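Entry:
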Amino acid sequence: MFIDKLMLKVKELQNPTIMGLDPKLEYIPESIRHKNRELYGNTLRAASAGILEFNKKLIDAVSGIVPAIKPQLAYYEMYGIEGLKTFIETVRYGREKGLLVVADAKRNDIGSTSQAYSSAFLGETVLEGQKREPVFNADAVTLNAYLGIDGIAPMLEDCKTYGKGVFILVKTSNPSSVQLQDMVVKDGRKVYEVMADLVAEWVRELIGECGYSSIGAVVGATWPEQLKQLRTRMPHTCFLVPGYGTQGGGAEDVAAAFDTDGLGAVVNASRSLMCAYKLERWKESFTSEDFDMACREEAIHMKNELTRVL
């Protein structure tokens, strides 16, 4: 099961972190961008090729340090078909290097459309003659379940069939999440608590040997009190915790996401790893050309910070 693979990697590496790959062109060293402009001109292909080279070097840098990566689909879709090729190659390369891959797609729909999303990210697409082919082939995908169980049922079934996982939005890290997620319903619960209680029911079908489920929840590091409350409310749910680093969340903020063994959550950092060379503690040691080495040092620093508080 996905969750057992993830928790095993966390224990092996003694590191409950995940690197987000949300690349922008301005993050990429000029030498890489120039090389690809020379090859392909100022085109979508050049941009996508530069992103792929950037991603591969980042993956090489953290391989053996972090258990997983989380590429965000929007940063690849914006470059059209060339960007999607880069996304597919990033997933393939990450898995080849021994990392689990969470596709940050936040998909949701109903019926056959939901099944199509699930086939693309978690399962297989049926071709002529009943031939089946994996497409994106991620290990897990993020979901928006605010359409109810209809919107995610095919994904949960494919988790069972293919040993994959999902992370469902419960309490997101952005400040304006309070506009909807903190509204109070008739029975006194907040909307995010209603979602948490639904997730706590759904997870029962896919609990692994580690005691957690392959059906996880997204809970932001920027809400430490809610994080603590939701850990109690969802005892068998693994948390994917965004908002660490650049968004303001620190090691102390995320500590409540974990159990007494330091399991039950993975903490995501994106820009603070991809652009670590810009951070105050590294900018005197690394240039943009050394982005991968800076990323490695920041990944180790993040691991040590989490280890200290856990």
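Strands lie at 17-21, 68-71, 100-107, 125-126, 132-133, 140-143, 165-171, 213-219, 237-241, 265-269.
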